[in-house]
Every structure is written in C-alpha cells, then in structure tokens.
UniProtKB/TrEMBL annotation:
It comes from Flaviflagellibacter deserti. Gene3D superfamilies: SWIB/MDM2 domain. Residues 1-27 are annotated as: Disordered. This is SWIB/MDM2 domain-containing protein. Residues 26-103 form the DM2 domain.
C-alpha cells in the first residue's frame, strides 16, 4: 500500500519555555533618519523595517534597479548622499542606511 504525501502547516515557533514567540521590541524601535535619508523616507521616527520598505517603494517607483542585474540599485540625486556611490547591491543597502539612523 502506497502512502500519499500530505502537506501540513508548521505551528508557530516556541521558546524554550514552550510559549509562542513574540516579536523582538528592538526591531520595532522607532529610529530617526538623517536629513539625507529623510529626503527619501520622511523625517518622522519609524522602525528600521519600515525604512527599508519605503526605500524599496522609492526604488521601484523611480525605476532605479539595474535591468541587467536586479540586485543592483542605481543611485539618483536623492540616494547618492545616502549610499555615497553610484551603484550599490541590495545587500550593501542595509549596511549603508544603518549609518543614517539614530535611536
């Protein structure tokens, strides 16, 4: 008799105590963007995850991804002061915006 494969949804991760995991408050802490970054994402204090989301909205709206290599972002007049160079990879982007956020 052959068994059929079934898919099951994994339950939420649990901590060592057995309780469901809660989000880390440090990731949700509002950070104040620098003047340069504020020109793109706004000047209000927002969590890092929201900063990254707003940056991607801006990048896609202004067609700043390199068509030949989607992982590469081409800096325009607003992004160049933030990144400090003409092109960055999406992996470099997070490291470069860290210097423009203050807790």
């Amino acid at each position: 008799m052959a068994k059929t494969a079934t898919t099951t949804k994994k339950p939420a991760a649990k901590s060592a105590s057995g309780a469901a995991r809660t989000p880390n408050a440090a990731f949700m802490k509002p950070l104040t963007p620098s003047k340069e970054l504020g020109a793109v994402v706004g000047t209000a204090a927002i969590p890092r995850s929201e900063v990254v989301s707003k940056l991607w909205e801006y990048i896609k709206k202004n067609n700043l991804q390199n068509p030949a290599n989607k992982r590469e972002i081409i800096s325009d007049d607003k992004l160049k002061p933030v990144f400090g160079k003409d092109k960055v990879t999406m992996f470099e982007m997070n490291k470069l915006i860290a210097g423009h956020l203050k807790g």
